[in-house]
User: Fold this.
Amino acid sequence: MDKRLTVYIVDDSAVQADIARTLLEKAGHAVVSYRSGADALQDLPTKPPPDCILMDIMMPGVDGYELCRRLRAMPTLAATKLVMMSTKAYPFDRARAMALGADGYFVKPLSPATFVAELERLVNGTLIMTFWGVRGTVPVSRADSVRYGGNTSCVSLGFPDGRLVIFDAGTGIKALSDALMSAKRARIDSTILLTHPHWDHINALPFFAPFYAQGNQFEICGPAHGDVTVRDLVSAQMDGLFFPVTVREFSASITYRDLHEGMFEIGGVQIRTMLLNHPGNCLGYRLQHGERSICYVTDNELFYPDSELYSAEYVERLADFARGADALITDCTYLDEDYPKKIRFGHSSVSQVADLTKRARPKALYLFHHDPDQSDAVIDAKLAQMRGLVGEQETGIRVVAPEQLAVFEV
Assistant:
């Protein structure tokens, strides 16, 4: 818990309101309860704005939809999180609540194990970042690579309102798929951001089980390649010759978006893209959610300053793209001693990434896309080298090499 919250509960059900109150007070938060929307509307203007207002939908008189609409119109509550909690688990009701200004939606009965933590993250705007695969090129399965894992690129970003953004669909997305199915979520609303269509970034997409479940909704975004669309790329991978199940078997609602360098928005999340130095069109992503920013930059080659291939302008543009991010996840494939044999492969080495980091000054650097030949011990050494070059103690930049399945709050 970052701080003690003040939470107002508006629910005509004494049982459900008392459950929420008990859970919140046990966690140290202050709670005020109202039994009707009318009572809340009458009393709220006389009190200091709370951190959060939890409200039921099905209430007599002023129902939750109307209450949410009227509360969101009050300037004094602009910073207050409005959250629905209802037995109605239908996608329509969630979407309607969000359209009227709700920041989150809990389905009753509330889970004693997760409710308070999820509400705290929602109020604080905390994002949950999970690394499902951190390798590049090909997956590995060796005794010396168990700790960092062998899956290829996949990172998920969980938002306080339940939405999910997934970066890339390498073999790591299978572990994410298993976790989502085990959680038995009633509905998954997600955006998949592909950096580029090389195999280690898309090869487990057909094994993503939520695609085959009705009610789920996904948008798959990625860089356009001339006349080849993102839909074409996904369909070709599953055209029957390369995989026995085609995209026609998807039961979820799947849409596609072709991206170029620029900016767009998904559900209030601003996303900026930048073309990276890698064979074919490859995009880096910077997501801005409230005050938090996450930058995902892989696969990318920076070159050494004494190389004729080095572009100071490009490095500075990339540094500006990542500047001040709360989290910079970036390609750090090679040790410096290995890089001379890998020039023009489209990936970067330790000192190149250290230089970029000192220019961009993110709050935290996450080393990513490790060479498949590197053992856990080699990655440990790479991490130690990076911490020394970045000057972790002096700069205050936290340097991390995430292990597979590692979870971070941003």
User: Anything to note?
Assistant: The chain has twelve helices and 19 strands. The longest helix spans residues 376-390. The chain has a mean pLDDT of 93.
